[in-house]
Amino acid sequence: MDLDCLLLLCIFMNLSGAQDVTTVRKISVQKGQSVIIPCLYEQKYAFSYKYLSAGDIWFLSNDIKSFDQRYHHKKVSISDDSSRNVFTVRFDDVQESAQYWCAVHIPSGFDKHAGFFLDVTAGLPSLYVNRQNVSGSENGSVTVTCYHHGQRDVKWCKFADRCVTGMFGTLDGASVEIRSDQKHMTVTMRGLKKENTGWYWCSTNDQQMPVHITVHHTQALVTAETDRITLTARKRTAIFFLLPVVLEILLIIIIYSALKLLTFCKERCLTSVNEEESQYITMHRSRSSRSYGGASGEGAYEIMAELKRNTEPQRESDYVNIRQT
Hints:
Elements (H helix, E strand, L loop, with lengths): L2 H13 L5 E2 L3 E5 L4 E7 L8 E5 L7 E5 L9 E6 L4 E6 L6 E7 L7 E10 L5 E3 L3 E5 L3 E8 L6 E4 L4 E2 L3 E4 L2 E7 L3 E7 L7 E6 L4 E9 L1 H74 L2 H31 L1
Parallel strand pairs: 2-9, 11-19
Antiparallel strand pairs: 1-3, 3-7, 4-5, 4-8, 6-7, 8-9, 10-12, 12-17, 13-14, 13-18, 15-16, 16-17, 18-19
Helix pairs in contact: 2-3
């Protein structure tokens, strides 16, 4: 194969699929930061295999990440929303600039793809936003501020759709107001509808910064708030019901502890009295033993007392007989 054929093949392979997959052309991000890049595809590829490649030329690129985790890269993740025909690539802690390719695998032909250049800068990027995800409610509004370094012709666009180039316009039924100065562009979308949910971008001549807007259904917000209030009320009711039970349990514990303490004190008092009586008897016996020569002296004293009791009636009888004579 000569050089001309190879060049034509490269051009054909790079152009093939450009209409089926759409993404940003160039995006700027500060070193060490994170960024999310959406890749839109046709509805017919909703259940096809999606992946990300890296390389200056498409057919020489290397697959680095896929939705089904066939290829792993710890700083890159992919999520697919088949209901909206978009898969997103998230880069974390970016370090180097590189060319990447969003791709959809076609088993019987050339894979569909679209390329973007990730420009990593040491300072602030030339086009950036504070948040890539914002939300609002139906009939409400959202505001997005895009910062730049004095670029001209900064626009607000619906992803893969038309742009608002003046101060006022509409996108999918929502009114758009744009205020610009030399450093930033502030976009306010009012009268939001459910169909306004999706990807938008701030755009200059050569760069884009994607922003995802989520429009919540008003009834869903009311329901969520009602559920939160109901849950709070249930918690308060549960506290009111449980508080008397807890207090009653504490009262029972206090009464039980008081009775146990009273019983313990009573037993200690009785034990103390018995100990004092026992000590008194012991001391009395000890003194008696010392006075009469111990146990033998005490026994002699008892014998003498018994003899005295026995002789007293006899003496009284002898005295009566003498008086009679």
